[in-house]
Amino acid sequence: MRLYILGTKAWNSKFCAENGDTIYETRSPKKLFGRTTTVSRIDDRYGHSKSLGKSYLAQFAWKTFRSGRLRFDNKEVRTRSFFKKQGWGLHGRDRVFEIGDYQFRWKLGSGVPETVVARYHPMTLSTRASKPYLEILPGWKNFADDIVVSFVYIEKLVEDD
User: Fold this and answer.
1) Nearest residue to 55 (alpha-carbon basis) of 71, 41, 44
2) Distance between CA 13 and CA 25 in Å, rounded?
3) Are 40 and 152 in contact (CB under 8 A)?
4) Which end of the chain has a smaller Cβ tally under 10 Å, C or N?
5) pTM of the predicted model as reported, rounded to 2 decimal places
6) How far apart are CA 21 and CA 106, in angstroms?
């Protein structure tokens, strides 16, 4: 499953399927202090675009001098307790988080993980004609909401470094 990112920042973009349908939307209105990012899933309720609706998935309240807050899956937690630091990568320490019985890790640099669940393909100088996309590998599509929410958070972290 490929989700193409239409926008310059993952936290303020649309994530579209290969056929162009918007699947997820992220919004981060500019504020003087304390930006908030909202992640929504766009639902096609009856199989045609006239019946689109939004489902709220998550919200990040970004903080400058302390851990931000994450509202996700009917819980509110500090981002530091949800995304634990582990190991080292090119862009800082990797982030590990748990969903159900599974533990996931976003690699922030080189190295090969044991099991690949999702992969980000950024736009590079050699691929300027193609859009950046997040690839969720077969067998993990049922975790798509969780992967997109965590990806948005990680991309904001990498951008801020």
Assistant:
1) 41
2) 6
3) no
4) C
5) 0.81
6) 26
